Amino acid sequence: RRFRASPADIAHAARRAVATPAEAGSVIGERTRDQLGDLAARLECPFSWDDLVLAPGVIEVLRDFEYEGRVRTALWEEPGLRRLFPQGRGLFALFTGAPGTGKTMAAQVLARELGMPLYRISLATVVSKYIGETAKNLQRILSRAEHLDAVLLFDEADALFGRRTEIKDAHDRYANTDTNHLLQAIEAYAGIAILASNKRSNIDQAFTRRLRYVLDFPRPDAAQRRALWTQVLGAIAGDALAPLDRTIDALASAIELTGAQIKYAALAAILAARRDQHSVRATHLLRGVDRELQKDGRSLTERERALVVHAV
Length: 312
Prior knowledge:
By secondary structure, this protein is α/β, with parallel strands linked by helices.
């Protein structure tokens, strides 16, 4: 890997008497990491490709993104490409889909595979009600992140990259000017960034056209839900999972949940079982599922409950 470094960064690494490029990158990273301050929070990246339960087509695009992330520095040093693409060399992606469908986990996997830290940008410190301030705040983040050699994650990117409004008054005109400044900041950034949104239509098309990747994360189908239930319960319950096979089949077929909902439902079921001092049963799983559904304003129907109970 190659690292972007200022003369001051290089001098700092030299004073530390680093022996390898990797050590230099680590020292420079430590020096620049604090520059983001309260603008971003570093996320742990414990997940690997095996943890992603997504359609093969989605995985393939994510692997394309990872490959480009690995070779991008050398890629843009090729004279022909530098001439064809004088700007917009940053590696940007838009991940869209319902909450809990794997957008953040995918970003964590990519950052881990690239060997780069992942920072979630705090939109509270970026978005401003004052015209022009939002673009300035974003520019401040990007300029500080320029030498950080990190992946930036803009969660709920709608607030920052939303559709421009029809001009009806002076405020709309200035607001759209702010968006134009955001576009310029994005085009000038040469790093890696991922935008996450619940709906692609919420993002201004002017931003979408400048992104290298636009990827939708659909809700898991029945087969994927079964894989998710098996994966999560297996990680927690281990060998005790076998008696739950038919219950898991019924849950996956009867109840549509996202990956995040399945994970938290499984956690609730495990805790309920431990409280009862018993192995995990269908009743515990149903209790966990019902708790997750209540967050969306609904409960298990009698039909859904019966389908799971009768499968045991």
